Amino acid sequence: MVEVSVIGCGHLGSAVIRGLAKSDNHTITACDLDEDALDAVEPHVDRTTKEVREAASAPVVILAVRPQTVSPVLNQLQMSPEQTLLSFAAAVPTDFIEERTGGTVVRGMPNLAVETGSTAAAVTAEGDEDVRNILDDLGKYVVVDESLMDIATALNGSGPAFVFYLIKIMAAAGVESGLAEDDAARLAAQTFKGAAEIVLQSEESLDHLIDAVTSEGGTTIEGMEVLRESEVDDVMERTIRAAEERSIEITNDFERD
Ligand SMILES: NC(=O)C1=CN([C@@H]2O[C@H](COP(=O)(O)OP(=O)(O)OC[C@H]3O[C@@H](n4cnc5c(N)ncnc54)[C@H](OP(=O)(O)O)[C@@H]3O)[C@@H](O)[C@H]2O)C=CC1
Ligand SMILES: O=C(O)[C@@H]1CCC=N1
Predict the structure, then answer these.
(1) How far is the CA of 9 from the CAs of 27, 182, 238, in angstroms?
(2) pLDDT tens digits for range 151-179
(3) Does the keyword Cytoplasm apply (predicted)?
(4) Contact at 8 Å (CB) between 80 and 70?
(5) pTM metric for this prediction
(6) Ligand 1: which atom is nearest the Cα of residue 14?
(7) Residue 249: inside a domain, yes or no?
(8) 133 lines ligand 2 (CB under 6 A)
(9) Does the annotation list 11 as a binding residue?
(10) Relative to the alpha carbon of 67, which ligand is closest?
(11) Could you list the residue range(s) of the whole structural domain that residue 167 is in?
(12) How many structural domains is the chain composed of?
């Protein structure tokens, strides 16, 4: 069992808690100022607290508060170098955190799929065995240089929102043609999941996989023609860039502090 504290039990923190609870490998302390947030995660944790200092003793402390709340939380968090502070706060540089904690800092950017143990995460270091176990239980991760955390934040951190939007558009087209909403939503979501699984498991290129779906004289070729002639490449590029630029902007604010 790895003892872990999660500070901030909002959207991400509560999803981390539910994901870790499913793996059954962790003793979890949940910390938040908000009583409702603690009540919501209470069935999945061993202990809840409103006091940051009570969450500070675990070997791994996960920081899942909003960027602007990081500094006040760190002011109350007494940690030592053998403990790891695993920060999931977007755009908060490692240096900024290291200057304010005695703990060993690992910066990470997961996404909401921590909930199902299928997150895509970028981390600046693998950390010790406890940290690696936690990351493994939450999904898959890659180790990247800190300079790449802004693009990771846009791609895999914000990414689920962009994918949810695409699922919504595809499902809506199905409903427009007569599918029941539930059926359309399931077909669209399962199609994303299945396609993603093929990409992860196949050694073929994405162009090869597109070809494999595109039967001669069939349906896909018509759809692909519309897609290729559209502005979707530019739109998705701009979507990712906008999120990346915002991450850089927030990072710069921290570096000025
Ligand atoms: N949402 C996501 O998909 C992802 C989020 N992140 C990062 O995770 C962090 C949290 O994001 P998200 O979960 O969306 O935000 P939320 O606002 O949903 O959650 C933050 C939680 O922290 C609580 N909080 C505020 N101050 C303290 C404090 N002093 N001590 C303990 N808890 C406190 C908040 O309470 P209250 O609301 O009362 O202030 C809230 O419950 C951010 O830094 C974000 O960049 C990273 C990857 C993905
Ligand atoms: O929107 C945000 O700022 C956070 C970071 C990545 C996902 N959510």
Answers:
(1) 16, 30, 31
(2) 999 999 999 999 999 999 999 999 999 99
(3) yes
(4) no
(5) 0.97
(6) 13
(7) no
(8) no
(9) yes
(10) 1
(11) 159-242
(12) 2
